[in-house]
Amino acid sequence: MPLSNYLPSSRLIQPGVCTSTTRPASPYEGQAIYETDTDKMYIWNGSAWRYLATPQTTEIGAYTDYASSVTFSGFTKGNATVVARYAIAGKMTHYWGYVILGSTSSVSGPLDVALPTTCKGGILTHNSACSFYNNATLFWGMVLNISTTSIRLVAMNASGTYTSNSDITSTIPFTWASGHYFFWNHTYETE
User: Fold this and answer.
1) Where are the domains of the chain?
2) Vertex 191 angle, CA 154 and 59, to 5°
3) pLDDT tens by residue, 86-116
4) Cα–Cα distance between 126 and 176 in angstroms, integer?
5) H or E, element range at 2
C-alpha cells in the first residue's frame, strides 16, 4: 500500500520538480528536488547535489578516491603504495586508507594524515582505529584528531598497568622497512 494511504498529503515529503538543466540556482541545505528528465531525486548537502540511488558514483555515501590528494607528516612517501577513500553521509565522513612502504619510503613520526573534509571542532571521533604490520605481527592503534584538518595514528602501548598511546617513530611500533604498512579507519563529524 502506498505511504499516502497512511499519511495525509501535507505530511509527505514533496520535492521540487525540475529538470537537470533547471535545478534551483540558490539551493538551501537539505532542499530536495526530483528531475523529470533523469528520474532521480537529489538532496543539496550545502555544497553539492547528491542523489539517492545505487550504484551511482555521486550518491550519498559513495566513496571518493583520495589517494592522490592525501598528505602526510612524519612520513616520506617515496615509492609507497597509497590507497585512500572517503564517503560523506549527512554530516559524517568515513575515511579509510592504507600505505605499503616502498624501498624509498620512510617513517620518522609522529604519523599525521590530512583529512579530506573539515572535522567539526577537531576532536569528535567515532569508530576510529589504525593498525601497523611488519609482515610478521599486527599492531593495533588509535586514530586521534589533532586539528580540524588532520589525524594522528598512534600505537597502543601495553607496557604499563593501563594501555596508553605512543607516537609512531622510525622504531615504534617496529623498525619500518619496505613492505611494511599502516592502515586507518576513521569516522568523524564534519562542519
Assistant:
1) 3-51, 64-189
2) 95
3) 988 878 888 999 999 999 999 999 999 999 9
4) 28
5) none
Give the number of other CB atoms < 10 A from CB of residue 55: 6
Q: What is the DSSP string of 152-185?
A: EEEEEE-SSSS-EEEE--SSSSS---TT-EEEEE
Residue 53 has what pLDDT? 56
Domain boundaries 3-51, corresponding CATH code: 2.10.10
- For the chain, how big is the Rg over CA atoms in Å? 21
- Cell 564534519 -> residue: 190
Compute the residue count for the chain: 191
Rounded to two decimals, the pTM is 0.68
Q: Which residues of the chain have pLDDT under 50?
A: 1, 3-4, 6-12, 54-58
How far, in Å, CA of 1 to CA of 89, rounded? 29
